[in-house]
Design a protein that fits this description.
It holds the Pfam family TctC. By secondary structure, the protein is an alpha/beta fold. About 40% of the residues lie in helices and about 20% in strands. It contains eleven helices and twelve strands. Strands 3, 4, 5, 6, 7, 8, 9, 10, 11 and 12 form a ten-stranded mixed β-sheet that branches. Strands 1-2 form a two-stranded antiparallel ribbon.
Length: about 325
């Protein structure tokens, strides 16, 4: 009896220990032997509410839950600061497969500018989900009606025109404008770019403190619909679909052979376990293929741009090389 009792106690201890170990890692194996989270998942938007990262994270969480793609609870938290660097540092320190974050070109640009020690190589790219695009807007009463008129004036005196964006110098809003302006023949080193990371860029445009607003397409929709601004150009290859966005001309159709893709996808902590990576890859592919996500894309003017882990890694490497050249030309690197 004593041996049997001892064996039962040992079995209980082993089971309890295994359960605690699984719980502490935030994961467990399903009945099929596949990894799945056994704790709530958090998706970090490394910026404040309302922007592209925040919207993408919240819409993904919403569809994951409403469509039953992921059974576990999902929460979205905002970690603004440093152009994304604060959120990246948070994820890097946690190293939990239950903690993900959404990102886009700043994950390449901010480290290239020497403003963050972390780059995409310090995390695990899981899947890219969408392509968003840049938009260049002016007040409704501005004298420019297209990009060529704007850039003609900037060629004469680039510093006389104030360009404002929400990202830091050398990050996305700045670089997307620089890339198109350079192709149009503007001296990009003399462009007067002002960064307003506190959400006041649009207000500055409307009150006359700035002349041009460089931002994402989605951030211009309401004001364009209300007739308060006009969008001189967008950075997509072709015109976008939608009641408002379809009226926005591309830079390419205005004879400026330049585009800028604001890719946006999801990343995990460094050295994510292969089983966890496989789980999330499948879930994000299911999300990308869903009708509910297609409706979200249409609502915000996003294009489908799914990439799995391997495709994403190759894409990010090429993007980094291209952006490095622009950063070097602007003398904004380390």
């Amino acid at each position: 009896m004593k041996k049997m009792a001892g064996a039962l106690v040992l079995t209980f201890v082993l089971v309890f220990t295994a359960a605690c170990s699984s719980s502490s890692s935030g994961s467990q194996e399903s009945d099929s032997g596949e990894w799945k989270p056994d704790k709530p998942i958090e998706i970090v938007a490394p910026a404040g509410p309302g922007g592209g990262w925040d919207t993408t994270a919240r819409m993904a969480a919403k569809v994951f839950e409403e469509e039953g793609i992921i059974q576990q609870d999902i929460g979205v938290i905002n970690k603004p600061g440093g152009g994304g660097a604060l959120g990246w540092s948070y994820i890097h320190s946690k190293k939990s497969p239950n903690s993900l974050f959404v990102s886009s070109p700043p994950l390449l640009l901010v480290p290239l500018n020497g403003q963050s020690q972390y780059t995409y190589e310090d995390f695990t790219p899981i899947a890219n989900m969408i392509a968003d695009y840049g938009a260049f807007a002016v007040r409704k009463d501005a004298k420019w009606d297209n990009l060529n008129e704007l850039f003609d004036d900037m060629k004469k005196d680039p510093s006389s025109i104030t360009v404002i964006g929400a990202s830091s110098p050398g990050s996305m809003d700045h670089i997307q404008f620089v890339k198109v302006a350079k192709k149009a023949g503007v001296d990009i080193k003399k462009i007067k770019y002002v960064s307003d990371q506190d959400g006041g860029a649009l207000t500055a445009l409307l009150n006359g403190s700035a002349d041009v607003y460089t931002t994402g397409v989605a951030e211009t929709l309401e004001q364009a619909k209300a007739g308060k601004i006009k969008v001189l150009g967008v950075t997509s290859e072709e015109r976008l679909d939608g009641d408002v966005v379809s009226t926005f001309p591309t830079a390419k159709e205005q004879g400026i052979d330049a585009t800028f893709v604001n890719w946006r996808g999801f990343f995990g902590p460094p050295n994510m376990d292969e089983a966890a990576l496989s789980y999330y890859e499948k879930k994000f592919k299911e999300l990308s293929d869903s009708e509910a996500w297609a409706e979200i894309r249409e609502k915000y003017g996003w294009k489908e741009m799914y990439m799995d882990h391997d495709e994403y890694m190759e894409f990010l490497s090429k993007e980094k090389d291209e952006l490095q050249k622009l950063i070097d030309e602007l003398s904004l690197g380390k």
